[in-house]
Amino acid sequence: MAIQGPKAEKRRPAVMTDVAELAGVSYQTVSRVLHDSPHVRGDTRERVLAAIRQLDYRPNSMARALVTGRTNTLGVVTFDTTLYGPASTLLGIEQAAHDAGYGVSVSSLRSLNRHTVLTAIQQLRDQGVDGVAVIAPVRAGVDALRHVRPDFAVVAVAAGPNASIPVASVDQAAGAAAATRHLLNLGHKTVFHLAGPPDWKEAEERIEGWKSVLKAAGASIPTPLRGDWTPRSGYEVGQSLLEIKSLTAVLVANDQMALGLLRRLHEAGREVPRDISIVGFDDIPESAYFTPPLTTVRQDFGELGRRCLQILLGRIEGGAGPTRAVVAPELVVRSSSGAAPKR
């Protein structure tokens, strides 16, 4: 029978004083190196970093938080991540945070109202996050943020350019205006609009942009039709659009509804863009592969995330920097929009 030798002693994790002893410096100097202080000589910094590597030292995040008052973690409150816009906004914020060296804790809500939003922010604050970004595309979410205590860093995202709180958003009105102008320039006498739900700020801003261009051009302004962002609603509203004899162009408030509308038009024997031109919004990855490929408005969610983080970190630092950021959208022209049919 084999005799087992004594168990190997478990190695104690290195602490900051071990690094200081090996590098021949003070505990305070190690701390300065870890916090990237400029008040450390280059050769001393290299000696400390070499000791950190040799000892495989890992800073204790809880201890660091006690010293600095920071956890280097941000919170994000989001809503309906099954939709492309909120999901892509969340991804943009997460990527920007990680690039800046921050972790992210996410609270995903089924509905946005004063109670759910404020509760989620408080729970994230109890976890020790340094600040919170709230993806608030619906009116109730924006209203809730007015009740957040001013001593905590919070930024709204997709809450519209006129929000009374720090906000980062894409210029929805400018995107809708560019799409409408594009269709008028193709010779269409007016542009119909399949809009999103009325409680969504982005839907209302797209209506504003669409209306402003039609009004400036002296074109008739049809009553917007409403969908719920889904392909099914685009398909169902398509029946109402087919009953409009003067219809030649439609701006659809998102690409998923445009997909449903394209299906309904195809079933009715209406060819896009020969008979009816369609422009969507979002530029989802599948838009280029619709039949026909969809002209749409692209939102730069990566830039939105970076601008949101810039504002949030400024608030964390005590209010420095901008409190408002607006990201410009881009019209992507493909094959679903064309010259108005001759009648």
Separation of termini?
Answer: 99 Å
Helix content: 40-55%
Side-by-side strand order of the widest sheet: 2-1-3-4-5-11
Strand count, sense and barrel status of the largest sheet are:
6 strands, parallel
Count of the separate structural domains: 3
Calculate the mean pLDDT score and round it.
88
DSSP, total strands: 12
What is the C-level CATH assignment of the largest domain? Alpha Beta
CATH homology superfamily name of the largest domain: Response regulator
User: Order of SSEs, N→C?
Assistant: HHHHEHEHEHEEHEHEHEHEEHEE
Determine the structural class based on helices, strands and strand pairing: alpha/beta
Q: Could you please say which CATH topology of the largest domain applies here?
A: Rossmann fold
Question: Any idea what the radius of gyration is?
Answer: 27 Å
Describe the 3D structure.
The chain is an alpha/beta fold. The protein folds into three domains: 16-59, 434 Repressor (Amino-terminal Domain) (Orthogonal Bundle); 73-170 and 300-329, Response regulator (Rossmann fold), CATH 3.40.50; 172-298, Response regulator (Rossmann fold), CATH 3.40.50. The chain has helices spanning 16-23, 27-34, 42-55, 61-68, 84-99, 114-126, 139-145, 172-185, 201-217, 231-242, 255-267, 301-316; strands at residues 73-79, 103-109, 131-135, 154-157, 167-170, 192-195, 225-226, 249-252, 277-279, 296-298, 324-327, 330-332. Helix 11 (255-267) links the parallel strand 8 (249-252) and strand 9. The longest helix has 17 residues, at 201-217. The protein starts with 15 loop residues before the first helix and ends in an 11-residue tail after the last strand. Mean pLDDT is 88; it is low at 1-9.
